Write the C-alpha cells for this entry.
Amino acid sequence: MPEVLKIGPYHPLVIEPELYEVRVQDGKITDVLIEQGFTHRGIETLMLTKTIKQDVFLAERVCGLCSQAHSTAYCLAVENVFGFEAPPRANYIRTMVFELDRLHSHYMWFALLFHMIHDTERFMVALNAREKLMDIIEAICGNRVHFSVNAIGGVRRDVSPQVMKSLLQLLDEYNALNDEIFKAMEVHSPKLSGIGILPRDKARAFAVVGPILRGSGVASDIRRDDPHLVYDDLDFELITEKGCDVQARSMVRAREIPETISILRQIVENMPQGEIKADVGEPPVGEESGRVEAPRGELIYYARLNGTNYPERIKLRPPSYVNVRAVPEMLRGEKVENLPPILESLDRCISCTNRVTIVDEKTGKISKVSLEELGRKWWR
Amino acid sequence: MVEINAYRLNVGSCNGCDIEVVSALASRYGIGNMNVKVVDEPEKANAMIVVGLVTVKMMDHLKEVYKKLKEPRVVISIGACGLTSGIFQKSYSVMDPSDKFVPVVAYVPGCPPSPQVIAKGIAAVLKADFKEWPAPEGFRGLPDLDEKKCTGCNACEKACPAFAIELIDSGNKRTVKYMHDKCISCASCEEVCPYDAVHLAKKRHPAGFQRPAMGVSAVEELSSCPICGNFEIPAKQLPAIADRIIEKVPEYKSYRADIEKAAAVCSKCRGKIIQMGGAKALLFKLGQTAIQ
C-alpha cells in the first residue's frame, strides 16, 4: 500500500525546520521530498543593515549550537579583507571556546540520540554531565550559548588562570562519561549498524561535510586541510570510520570527544601571554572568505567590503544545508521505523515533538503518528 | 495551574533557546518535581512553549497549533526573539512577536534565557517555588545604567545591534531607555560607553506574567543651541567633550569656554557656523595652532 509520510515542518534542533514528505511502499521508503525555509530569517540581507562590528553578534545567532563557529568564520573572513591576523593569545582563546562549543554540541547530540532511541536513563546522564561543562562555559564567556567572545581584531574577554585550572579538573572527570558513551554505542550497535547507508563514492558525489563524510571513510577536516586559528600547532587525530552507516557517524562523534578534550588540554598548556585585541584600522575595499570546521562540518563565510562600516555582501554556507541533500540517498529502501535515528545521525534532529502525517494514497485517509511513537514500535 | 503538559514549538529560532529548554530538563533545575510533562502532540498538551521569532512561513502553523491545544491553553514565550524578534527586527521575513498571534501568558526573556530563568517562568505558571542560585563572576546579565555618569551621548544606542536602547527627546529633556525584553546581553553598550556608565550586572533576567517592557532609564538635560535655540546636545556632555579635546591637545586649555560653546551648536546650525563670530575665530586659531 503506497503511503506518504509528512514530517514537519517543525523540528527543534536544526537551523531550518524542514518538511519531509516520505513516500512509503510496503513499509519501505521509496522517495523523499524535502521542503526548507521555515525559519528563514533573512540574515544575509539583515547583515548589510548593521555595521561590521555588530554583525559578529548576528553571525553567532545563525545557530545556537555552532555559535562560536559562525562568529569565528565571519571574523576570519572580514579580518582577511583587512589583511589582519589576530594576536596569538586571541587565537588561542578563540580555539579554546571553539573546542568547548564542539564538546557541548557533541554531548547534546548524544543526549538527543539516546532520547530518540528511548534510552531515557543515558539521556539524563549525558544531560546532567553536560551541565558542568556549561557552567565552565558560562564562567569563561558570560553566557551559556551565545558566547560573544569574538570581535573583529581579536577577542573581547580574557580567560583567568583559575578558570583554566577548573577546566582541566573538569576534563579529567569527563573520562568516565566518555566510557559510558562508548559502552552505550556498543549496546545499541546491533540496531544502529547497517542503516542509513551512504557509500563513500556517494558521499563524495553529494559533497557532504563533517562527521557524515568522515563516517563514510573520507578523511576530510578543515582543521587539517586548511589550518586556521592555531590548529597548526596542535596535535590531534583525524577520525574516520568505514561503516558508512548511523553507527559509524555516531562513532566518529564519540571518538572526537576524547580528541577535543586532548586539544583543550594542549591549548591550556600552551596558552601564550600577550594582548587579546588589536586595532584593525580603517575598513578597506575587497573580498575574502573564511572557513572553519564547525561541529557539523565545513562552514564558509564570504565577505565583500566597500570601504565603509557596512558590508556590501555577506554570504554564508552552513554545513547542515549541504548535508540534507544526501537524505534521500540514505533513506531510499530503508524501513520506515529507521527514519528517526537516520535523521538524527545528520545532527539535525527531529525531536519527539514533531509529528508525522501518514497519507494513504488510495483512500486519501490521513492519520497522524508522532515520530516518537513511530520509533517506539521498533526501539522498545 | 496544577499540571503542565507542554508542547514545544520552534517558530524560527536559532536553536539556542531550544537547547536551553532541553537543558532545563536536567535534574538540577528540578522541573521533574514540578508536575511538568513534555508531550509530542498538541492535542495532548494544555500548554505551549513558543520558541523564537515568528517567520512568514511558520505564522499559520503557530495559529493552527494553538487551536489544537486543550484548555486552558497557556502559552509561554521564550527568548528575546519570542518577545520582540530580538536582533532580527526589521528583517523582511520576520513577522510581529508571537504575542501578536496567540495570547501569551508568561514571558521568559533573555538571549537565550538560561535554564534557571525558564524554570522560573514555568514555576510562576504553576505557582511553584523555584530557588535560583547566583550567576558566576563575569556573567553577562541585564545592563545596569549609572544615571550620574550617563551623559546621554547616544554611543550605546548606535552600537546596540538589537535596538534595545532608545533615546527620546522632548523639550529640554532626553530620556535614555534600556529595554530589557529586547536586550541580547552582548555587552556592546558596556564596550562603547566613554563614561563607564553601563555595566552588565551579574543578575539573571526576570520571568513571569508581565513583559519586562522597560529596564533602566536615565533622564538628561539638553543644552540649547547658541544659534537657533534648539535642544540637541546634552548639557553634561559639553564639559566631557572639552575635557577630551584638552586631554589630547593641552595647548587648547585657554579656549575651554569657546570649545564648550562650539560643541553646543546643533547639527542643523553646524552648516551655518559662519554666523558665529567667536566660533569662527576659535576655529581659525585652532587651525593656526595645528599647523604650527
